[in-house]
Amino acid sequence: MRGEGQSAGTISTGTGRFAFAAVDRSTSAGNPDWSIRPRWYAVAFHDLPKTGGGRTDLAGFLAAALAVLALASLAIAYHWQRRVEADAKAWELAERLEVDNRALAAVNRELEAFSYSVSHDLRTPLRSIDGFSLALAEDHSDALDPEGRRYLERIRSAAQRMGQLIDDLLGLARVTRSELRLQSVDVSDLANSVISALEPDHAVAWQVQPGLVAEADARLLRIVLENLLGNAAKFTARTKDARVTVGSRWDQDGPVYFVRDNGAGFDMEHAGRLFGAFQRLHAGEDYAGTGVGLATVQRIVNRHGGRIWAEAAPGQGASFFFTLGKTGK
Ligand SMILES: Nc1ncnc2c1ncn2[C@@H]1O[C@H](COP(=O)(O)OP(=O)(O)O)[C@@H](O)[C@H]1O
Ligand SMILES: [Mg+2]
């Protein structure tokens, strides 16, 4: 307002002129801060000389303003009411979700503990089966005919396979149970170290992009690379000029690490099953395995707040991509 801070003056509007004068100056005496001191003014309104209907205009204007104000307050009240209701509903839903989540987590923990102890307990009788069939094969094979020896051989290989399954299951459970210890990891170094321990039966041209780094749990990331690189080696066993590449590319959320091979690949139609425990897209006779590896990898990646996915085609190789969530940035 133009008259602010003055003791008297005029303010012109479209319909007329307001004249004002301070009535009592003592309220502001000694205080220069006008904005916080109330001051009384006498105000008079004069029509503009040319506009005869100024007062009527003002009344109309005030009525319209009042109507707009009333409508606006109604709209605000309605909106407010709706918001309060929506807030209450959202709050109730969030609370219910939290309760469900806690119950689910408890059931999950119980299941993990159960499968861990069952797997652990299964190991002892299995060791007996494997040990005694080995003793039978070594010390009493003369007492068996060729068919008997073949059966014994099958018992031993089944026992060993079951042992591998149990170990993999225990590994899967351990991944969820162990504490996440984040540190700066040289992914290229880790990949090279995993590769040197792999020793596949066929020649593989390994290529690891240097300088890959991540903020991750080194022990768990090693398990990820062991599985992805182990798979890449396994599924290139029948490929001429087998090639496996480890690298990273950037998307808007940070680095995406990948392991790419030119091996057997698979039909993307079945890609949804890849990360389920015991799920295999290839026959055991062609490529041995338990189908627990990628389930373990996915759990580790998820624990880091990341995600994993694959692209492949039959006979054209496979690429596995993963992020490590915010820790990878
Ligand atoms: N690099 C790959 N190329 C082709 N298929 C793959 C590859 N990696 C995984 N798969 C498919 O996903 C399945 C699950 O993998 P995984 O859980 O590691 O089990 P496993 O290695 O014991 O078979 C594999 O059996 C295979 O069918
Ligand atoms: Mg595997």
UniProtKB/TrEMBL annotation:
Record keyword Glycoprotein present = no
Give me the reactions it catalyses.
Answer: ATP + protein L-histidine = ADP + protein N-phospho-L-histidine
- GO molecular function per UniProt: phosphorelay response regulator activity; phosphorelay sensor kinase activity; protein kinase activator activity
As recorded in UniProt, its EC number(s) are 2.7.13.3
State the Pfam families in the record: HATPase_c (PF02518), HisKA (PF00512)
Q: For this UniProt record, give its keywords in alphabetical order, as a comma-separated list.
A: Kinase, Membrane, Phosphoprotein, Transferase, Transmembrane, Transmembrane helix
Is the keyword Protein biosynthesis assigned to this protein?
no
Membrane-spanning segments = 58-80
Q: Which InterPro entries match?
A: BphY/WalK/GraS-like, HATPase_C_sf, HATPase_dom, His_kinase_dom, HisK_dim/P_dom, HisK_dim/P_sf, Sig_transdc_His_kin-like_C
This protein's superkingdom?
Bacteria
Query: Residues in domain Histidine kinase?
Result: 117-328
Per the record, the GO terms for biological process are:
osmosensory signaling via phosphorelay pathway
This chain's protein is named histidine kinase
Query: What organism, scientifically named, is this protein from?
Result: Jiella endophytica
